[in-house]
What we know:
It is a single chain. By secondary structure, this protein is of the alpha+beta class. It has 9 helices and 20 strands. It has helices at 4-11, 14-20, 23-29, 41-52, 65-68, 76-79, 83-91, 116-127, 421-427, and strands at residues 159-162, 167-169, 175-184, 193-201, 206-211, 223-224, 231-233, 238-247, 256-258, 261-266, 272-273, 277-280, 296-303, 308-313, 321-329, 335-341, 352-360, 365-372, 403-406, 413-414. Strands 1, 4, 6, 7 and 10 form a 5-stranded antiparallel beta sheet that branches. It has a 4-stranded antiparallel beta sheet with strand order 12-19-14-17, with no helix packed on it. Helix 4 crosses helix 8. It is globular. Bound molecules: heme C (HEC). The site of heme C has 25 residues, from helix 1 and helix 7. The site of heme C (HEC) has 25 residues, from helix 1 and helix 7.
Amino acid sequence: MLTNTLVRTVISGAIAVTAVLPPAAYAQTDSGSTVADPPTFYSNVLPILQDNCQVCHQPAGLNLGGMVAPMSLMTYEETRPWAGAMALAVEHRKMPPWHASRAFEGKFQGERYLDEAEIETIVAWAEAGAPEGTPPSNWEAPEPDKEADGGWALGEPDLILELDEPFLLEDDVEDLYVTLTATLTEDMLPEYRWIKSVEYRPGPYVHHILRGMGGLAPGNQPIIYDNGYGRLMPEGPRAIEFDMHYHKEAGEETAAYDQTEVGIRFMEPGEVVRYRTTSEMLGIMDFVIPPDESSYSASREYHFEEDVYIAGFTPHMHLRGKAALYELTYPDGRHEQLLHVPSYDFSWQHSYDFKEPVRVPAGSTLRFTLWWDNSEENPSNPDPTVEVRYGEPTTAEMGFGFMQLRAIEEDEIIVGQPISDEVRRLYGETIPMSNDAEDRRRSGSGQ
Ligand code: HEC
């Protein structure tokens, strides 16, 4: 398995990659066998990249910016030096990043899987020395630069929130967790509005953001409230807190300022909000993980007292997080696994949102189980020699199963018309319970 250190070394530059894994090494392991027609970039590899990789691996666009695209894989020249690293990444199922077990393919929005043939194509291409092939006659070098309209993938926002001050990341910073605020003044938002979309424009080295306006993590697309989902943004003045995680290589002249921005667009009068969603924390806090324990688990049950839809899950642990499982037992005894994340990775805080929400009858029970790996086998483990309990720093652990629920009954709220206190309460932002129990009332999306 690739360790994080290796990954970080690998992504720190194309030169490192060629040093670690010269494509020639692949060619040698293959010597003797005669491959008639090795795959080429244009005929075989490019289509896979277009469908599965370029959404993140491009110089700019979709607001995944510097955070998510350590390198661009748009052209042959850009991709070639990464051939060896790509083969490793896809063989180990590290890329494209998606952590639900393959048994759930087809169930979740935004899922990412490569099939065996695609993996073999990339590996064979790297082994053959990454041949270019001939561009199709209609080939034009892609122009991914979306900076034209100020860099907002969804268009000019109605409101831009910005961290109150530029935040300095010093040379020696590697991983840094800090809570920063952005002030929403009364002028900016004199009265509540219905949010249509939230798009982050992260500054340098932003790895992920919890809380704030719904959060940002590697691989997240802008949040779009669509198809009847809605969320209120209460008026200013108020301070909105963002839990920032910065990650960079420490070193001379690596210091940089971040002043992340969030672009918010609002719904137009006349649009209709129908789906009321709530979030259940499903917290497990009472645990003690012994030193060197490679598979410590804890479970919790949640009993459904009324019919409801489950819209999605967001398991959240820290660096020792290993796996998560959600199982539902229906009142008639029928048992179903709803989500299994066999190899949880703290770097990727996925929300697993069902394409079709799961209808759950009253009397059902959800069992939610988490596993942690506090052994030295876990490359992210900051210290396998200590007992680990619940706590906010990433070096302590958390155990959340955040579950998004959608009411069976639908509302019909016309945007632009006055709302009741009840609607305000049900659709407004919630105050987070702790640093980490952020507002996850994310209400579906229409990506
Ligand atoms: C959702 C965004 C996303 C997608 C989709 C994606 N990547 Fe990545 N990729 C990243 C990020 C972010 C990193 C930086 C490493 C990290 O933080 O995990 C990365 C790192 C890499 C690396 C560096 C080494 C490594 O193993 O981590 C390679 C190679 C790579 N990606 C190849 C690919 C290929 C090939 C695809 C498509 C099959 C792909 N990626 C799809 C976001 C993405």
